[in-house]
Amino acid sequence: MKFTFVFLLILILFTSCDSTKLKETPISQFEGKWKLINRGMLEGIEIDITKDKKGKYSGKIIKLNDDKYVNMFCAIGDKFVFGISRNSNFEFTLSEKKIAAPLFSQYGISSSADFEVVFLNQNTISFGKNGSEGTYERL
Fold this sequence. Notes:
The protein has 3 helices and 8 strands, in the order αβββαββαβββ. Helix content is 19%, strand content 37%.
């Protein structure tokens, strides 16, 4: 009786776990062209994330939006994503350049922002809790 109870308890614990988080999400999944969604003034910017010869990932702007500050401080070809690192099997830290980064750095203010990101699926990267800070959607 006791053995059956313990066996059933263990069986329930293992079958009720979310096994999708146990598999490691490949960091290479970041490679490709992405569009920024629900990112405020960054809405609609398109970037291309690639891996360099040293194995580091970075993203360059391939299309700007119509925001006047974005057009004032950014240009096509500017590096926008300059670092991606793994935190766990499914969580990553993505570093973005802030709009007006050169101006901020002149006054000693941080010119980059780090975000905790996860893949919702192969074509969507979620920023913050449940996408509260926006998403990248694959083009």
